[in-house]
Structure formats: structure tokens, C-alpha cells
Amino acid sequence: MDQIISTDYASAAGSNTIYNRHRARWAFLLDSYMGGMQYQNGSYLTRYQLETEAEYAARLQITPLDNQVRSIIATYISFLFRVNPTRDLGSLESEITVGDFLKDCDWEGRDLDAFMKQAAIYANIFGHTWIVMSKPDVGAITRADEIAAGVRPYLNMMTPLVVTDWKWTRKLNGSYELSYLKYVEDSNGSVSVIKEWTPTTVVTTTVNHEGETITDRLEELNGLGRVPAVCLYAHTSSVRGLGLSTVNDIADTQRLIYNLTSEAEQGIRLGSHPSLVATADTNVGSGAGALIHMPQNLDPALKPYVLEFTGQEVSSVYTAITNLVSSIDKMANTGSIRATESQVMSGVSREVEFQLLNARLSEQADNIELAEEQLWKLFAEYQGQIWTGEIKYPDSFAVRDTDNELDQKLRAYGTVATPAFRTAIEHEIAELLDLDLEETVVAELEAHPVTTVSDRSAHIQTMIMEGYTDAEILVIHAEISQADITAAKQDLLNLSNNGTNAADQD
Q1: Helices marked H in 35-111 — which ranges?
Q2: pTM listed for this prediction
Q3: Helix extents (H) in 132-208
Q4: Which of 106, 295, 381, 440 stands 20 to 30 A from 121 (CA)?
Q5: Would you call 293 exposed, middle or buried from its count of C-beta atoms within 10 A (0-12, 13-18, 19+)?
Q6: Are 149 and 138 in contact (CB under 8 A)?
Q7: Cα 429 to Cα 21: distance, rounded to the nearest angstrom
Q8: How far is residue 432's CA from residue 287's CA, in Å, rounded to a whole number?
Q9: pLDDT tens digits for 204-247?
Q10: What is the spatial distance between Cα 270 and Cα 310, in angstroms, rounded to a whole number?
């Protein structure tokens, strides 16, 4: 009997080889994103030789983390969810529970957009995340009974750290279907609740890890007939159920920066507070100007002396950190976006980097879109319907270097004299700056293009003849001064006088 219990516990608490191989790495990636106390507890600083536990703990406490992982993921998520997805729910438009599901999809108050955003964050951290859709069985006979009881499908988000086993089965048509999923639903100290899904059953097991025993086991029928789980990938790999993390290499570089920051702090500390070598019976004071009391019979060769710090300059450490941050931006294609100071990059380099970032984000958006459509298919099956809708996430995240484009257009504008070309450039500048021009303003720009020295006087004369006042001319044309208007009036008056004199002579 003990052998049977031990076997059942091992089966419930066990995990597959992929999970065992990647669990430590997943924990490191999560710590790298979370930062703070969680990163300190991971003890990612390299230990010095002969360093005591107290000294190491103090060094962990005072070393700050420049969280590049969180910054990169936040940048990606800001692009991915800057525009809300469009949802054509098809046959589910008339489903009475859909509105409530969209507003609170996980029974924790999160709407579907916020839920998918959080799932995308975890997918970027680990490479993938699991989403399980459940619908409790309350014994309702009709849909009216379900609605009265408030029963509807809801979502659970599972990180790879809690999903311990999964299996896919190939169907006759060649496609693969998830046929088994096991995850830790809850954990409290030594007691864990483990849930196992198959197409026919749902098994909930409560295990005690200290005694390695099973304290409770509940087996239910799976009325859906399939495992209601979806794997959301950041980037797919060759292994089903295993994604590629966006920040895998960035997390390693961040750890190196973390260690270099500690080295810089230690170098500054040794440089400003050097060590003092003294005998055990020498009384050394602390602080600036402190007295040192030596024994009267102390050998002169044993008098205290300062141990000079001859290590590498701290500036070289900070140079290395700057280079590593630049390396992270290259890995993430975010050099131009996250730049805190002017960088020397050609227009072609910026454009290539923007295109690479756009391709990376488009791949993620397609994966999120696919995962949500699979969730809606499960929702429709739970409600006895067939999914006929379509989910559409933005698939273009083209980034424009507005300053560079504006500079080019302004330079072109200054070299073009043709009114039609100048008007076209004006419209492009307005579009680039996202200026909402009224139709009357557009017509005004077309009727009054920017003047040049050669045509300025003639254009002012035309506006005067059309009844424009000096103030209106100055408002429409920023390049025209009051002196220009006065000169144009004089030219117009001279022209009129010349015409009058010619008529008198005739």
C-alpha cells in the first residue's frame, strides 16, 4: 500500500524533462524582470574569495540593478497595445455572457485587453505562457439555469514555472492537439493543489510534499471533450510548448552590468577609504583626523601604513557598462527609441533598425492574435456554438524618425521655387506633424503659398487688390514684413501713376 501511495505522489508531483531542464532558467528570467528584493534573493553577484556571508549580504544590499529587461519589455508592450485590437465576434455577438466576459475575463476584475497585455508580458519573459479557460459545472440543466447562477467561461494565466507537464497528440488529419496538461493550481507551504487535464477527465490532487503523500483527490468528467488550454508564444521554437524568450541574452548582459556596478562601488569605496594596516595592539580611531595610538615599544618597521588601491580605474568600468547597454539596444533593436543622448546614426541605419523592430513586433502581434482566436473558439464550444468571428491586432508598427524627415523636408522647401512643389511640401510637413488642418486653412495655403524675393511684391499687390488688410497679410505670410508691404504699396502706387500719365499723354 505504501508503494502505491508513493507511486501516486510521484505521478502527481512529477514533471517532464523539458520543465526540469528549463526551470532554473525561467526562474532567473523572472527575477531579472521583477528586480528589487526578488533579484537580490537570487544572489546573482559573483562571490569574492574569502568573502563572508555578512559581507556578501551587505554587497547585495547596496548594489542597485539597472533593469534593462523590464525596460525592453515595457517598450515592446507599449507598441503592441498602443492601438486596441478589433474584435468581430461573429456568432457570439448575441451571446448574453460575452459582454461580462470582455469586462471581467478572469473573475479578478481584469478586462480582456488588460489580461492579454499581462499574458504578453509573461510570454516575453519566458518565451511563452499558458492560458486555461474553465467553466464550472454547477449541475445546471438549461442555459437559463447557468445564467441565473452566473456561470460562464473564465480565464486562468499560467506561467511556465507552474505548468509541469504537457503532451501533444497527432490526429488523423496530421494536426496536433494538446492531450494532457498538468499545473500547480495553488501552493501553500508544503501543500500544493495540482490539476491535470485530459480530453475526458479533470483530476484535482492535493499533495503534502513533506510527507510525500496525497491528502485529497477529486476526478471529474471533462464535458468539453478537449484540453481547454492555449499556449501564447512570444517567438516559437522547434519544441511544442516551449517558446523563445525575448530577453534571454539581455538578462545575461544585465547580470554582467549588475556585477560591474558592484565592482565600481567597491572601487570607489577603496579609492576614497583605503585600508589601514596596523598591529593588533594599535588603537586606531575612525573618521577624518582621528588619532592612532601606538604602543611605546612598537618596532618602527611595524608602524601603521595605508594600503594603496592599485586596481583599474572606475571610469573604465563605467565605459564597459555603457558599451553593454549599447549592446542590449542592438539585440533588442531599440537603439534609436531608448537613446538618452544624441547618437551618430545615418538615416539608413535608423530605417533598418526600425524595420527590424517592426518585424519583431509584428511576429508577436500575430502570435497574440492567434492565441486569442483560439480562446474564443473554446468560449464558443463551452456555450454550444461555433466560432465564426475574427480577431485583428495591429500588424504594422512602423516607427518614423520625425526629426530627420522634418529636417529633410525643410531643406527641400528652402531650395524649391515652384509654388506647386512648395504647396505639396507644406502638406507633407503638416501630415508629418499630425496637424489637423481645416479645409478653409488648406484652401488658404493653396491660394497663398510661401513667397520668394522675386514674386513677393507682386503677390502682396494682388492681395491688396483683393481687399486684404496689412494685418491679415502678416498673419497669412510669416515671411512677409511690414516693410515688404509698404514697398509693395509704393510699387502699386507707382504703377498706377505711370498708367495715369500714359493715358494723359494719349
Answers
A1: 36-41, 53-62, 68-80, 98-103
A2: 0.75
A3: 143-149
A4: 381
A5: exposed
A6: yes
A7: 55
A8: 61
A9: 999 998 888 888 999 999 989 999 999 999 999 999 999 999 99
A10: 10
